[in-house]
Amino acid sequence: MTAPAKLAGFAAALLLVFGGATVAGGAIGPDREGSDAAAGDGAMAAHGEDEAAPDPVRGLAVSGGGLRLVLNETELRRGRPSELSFSIVGADGRAVRDFEVEHEKRMHVIVVRRDGQGFQHVHPVLGGDGVWRVELAVPDAGAYRVFADFKHDGEAQTLAADLTVDGEAAYQPLPAPATSADAGEGYRVRLNAGAARAEREAELRFTVTRAGKTIRTEPYLGAGGHLVALREGDLAFLHVHPEDGGEAVSFLTEFPSEGRYRLYLQFKHEGRVHTAAFTQEVAR
Ligand SMILES: [Cu+2]
Question: What's the pTM value of the predicted model, to 2 decimals?
């Protein structure tokens, strides 16, 4: 199968989200605009799935597709376990409750600091009151993004909001690009991304080793691994899932623009989930 054909077949499941600031700006704003955008987005998404076109921008806006992310806490205390709770509110102002299972969960939450540090991926529980709750401990101060990734009415969405953690933040520059990363506990991950170019299909192949030996990962969220990619500067969110890569954990994706991205690979081995982070340079 040719690479483009593979990508086409994969696109329905691909939560690739991006686009320019113009589009994002349109999606952010008063409810009225959000609702207007909703009709258009929905139509585009339905069409897009048929056509295997990339999804519209995601992860930059707090509302879209007629839905809004409402965080009940926008500030957490540093270091101690806190409850993060939120709702996804529809155009009628009510909390949405009918979410669809995607990648084994009805809601995926990613928390990451603005500089790409402190990545966490958690799965909250939906209460009868329509509120999602999860315990979260964030060790470092600073400004964070909370991404709520879910599927509703057949449409995959990622909405995001800001969260602050008290104290003085010690932001760090994005680590230099590397093809190998430490995942802790003796695990090391190698990345082969070829020459990644903007707006071109890219295959990201990860090989996991422990004590120098290649290991085969265990299923995690219904796949061989889980990958989140965030663009440096605005944290535009790209959430992809793997294709069959044999020994490697392999993903197909398309970077929307040149620049640097932080990739967070999560894999499971011997019942535990590990994370390896990479900086990926994408050329024009
Ligand atoms: Cu998840």
Answer: 0.80
Per residue in 47-92, pLDDT tens?
333 334 455 458 999 999 999 999 999 999 999 999 999 999 999 9
Alpha helices in the chain (DSSP H): 3-10, 21-27, 31-51
> Number of H helices and number of E strands within the chain?
3, 20
Q: What's the 107 CA to ligand 1 centre distance in angstroms?
A: 7
Indicate if the pLDDT at residue 133 is higher than 90.
Answer: yes
Q: What is the largest CA-CA distance in the chain?
A: 56
Q: How far apart are CA 70 and CA 114, in angstroms?
A: 19
Decide if pLDDT at 245 tops 80: no
> Distance of CA 177 to CAs 83, 117, 279, Å?
34, 15, 5
Q: Token match 């989140």: residue?
A: 228
Q: How far apart are the CA of 123 and the centre of ligand 1, in A? A: 6
CA of 103 to the centre of ligand 1 (A): 7
